[in-house]
Design goal:
Distance between the termini of chain A: 108 Å
Shape of chain B: globular
Structural class of chain B: mainly alpha
Order of helices and strands of chain A: HH
Radius of gyration of chain B: 21 Å
Number of helices of chain B: 7
Largest interface: A-B, 29 and 39 residues
Number of strands of chain A: 0
Strand content of chain B: under 5%
Oligomer: heterodimer
Radius of gyration of chain A: 37 Å
Helix content of chain A: 55-70%
Distance between the termini of chain B: 25 Å
Number of domains of chain B: 1
Structural class of chain A: mainly alpha
Order of helices and strands of chain B: HHHHHHH
Helix content of chain B: over 70%
């Protein structure tokens, strides 16, 4: 193995670096196929995001409904408990 | 004192929802099939022209949502009800969703056809303006509570948004610009029969799609209103620890 092979690569001096970007003259700037795929993906991403948002709203409503049902059940149980002694007294 | 009421049972309209969803799905699949596999590649623009089969129907679906928002808003201002408010709110959201699709797919097509993504063309500008009105409507409803005052203000915004729709539509004829007029103008239209089938399938599919999403959103909003009323009734009955979950 020679010393030249083990030597680290020569660092780029400022003069070697690109100092400007020049646009391609003519030819295609954007690939039509890629743009089509991006557009198609965008449609489904937007729709899925909206459906996810609707699902979240429905989940929130479900939680509120659960809370309301628990409250009603508790109130009904209390009502039953209060009514029971009087019912027993009548019996 | 009001009492808790329960509306149970299936309404006749509910039984229509599943067939509507099935028809929408089939139409969307047919559109995808026709647009990608049957319609030929356009001679000058190439494959990117196929964006057209979803871009224009999405714009049409945005109009459907905006029209629903307008109808709901006008009716709400005439006589406020939960259903009318729900229609306005659902219509605005449908307009936002399909408007976003229009404003993303259009520039992607333009990048290839015009060489740049965006220009302040009359149709592009008015379409974005209209979309921003519906975004404002939705932000207002999302962050300002659900009182009658907020609902009325939003309804006025819904009417303002609809006033912009004819301007979008006729902006191409009135002020020119770069936006193509293949469907309504004198640009020669779609030259191949399969292009016409793909386009009209897309229009029908997105009409059904917008209708299905609108219906779903209205139902969700109505359930929310009914739940809010039930919670108020529960408070009236002295069950005021309802928020405990």
């Amino acid at each position: 193995m020679s010393l030249a092979q083990n030597a680290p690569p020569t660092p780029a001096v400022p003069d070697d670096r690109a100092t400007e970007f020049t646009a391609v003259q003519g030819g295609e700037q954007y690939s039509g196929g890629s743009l089509l795929v991006e557009a198609y993906a965008a449609i489904w991403i937007i729709l899925m995001a909206w459906i996810f948002m609707l699902w979240r709203k429905q989940a929130t409503l479900g939680e509120r409904l659960d809370g309301l049902e628990r409250t009603i059940d508790r109130a009904a149980a209390e009502l039953e408990k209060n009514a029971s002694p009087s019912a027993r007294a009548k019996g | 004192m009001t009492t808790l009421t329960r509306k149970s049972g299936k309404r006749w309209s509910d039984s229509l929802f599943v067939p509507l969803l099935a028809v929408t799905t089939l139409l969307l699949l047919a559109t995808i099939h026709w647009a990608f596999l049957k319609a030929p590649v356009e001679a000058r623009m190439g494959i990117v022209q196929k964006i057209f089969y979803f871009h224009v129907p999405s714009a049409y679906a945005m109009y459907i949502g905006a029209t629903a928002c307008f109808i709901g808003s006008v009716m709400y201002l005439l006589k406020p009800t939960d259903a009318r408010d729900a229609l306005g709110r659902a219509g605005a959201e449908v307009a936002i969703v399909f408007g976003a699709i229009v404003l993303i797919t259009g520039p992607l097509w333009a990048a290839k056809a015009w060489g740049y993504f965006w220009t302040w063309d009359p149709r592009l500008t008015t379409a974005m303006l209209s979309w921003l009105v519906y975004v404002a409507y939705s932000v207002l409803r999302g962050f300002s509570g659900d009182g009658p005052g907020e609902r009325k203000f939003a309804a006025a915004l819904g009417i303002l948004g609809a006033a912009n729709l004819p301007i979008i539509h006729y902006s191409v004829q009135k002020w020119g610009g770069q936006h193509p007029t293949v469907v309504t103008g004198k640009g020669g239209g779609l030259q191949h029969p399969d292009m016409k089938i793909a386009f009209w399938l897309g229009m029908i599919a997105f009409t059904f799609f917008a209708g299905t999403l609108l219906w779903t959103r209205v139902r969700l909003e109505l359930v929310k209103s009914r739940l809010a009323h039930a919670e108020e009734d529960a408070i009236d009955l002295g069950l005021d620890d309802r928020t405990e979950t």
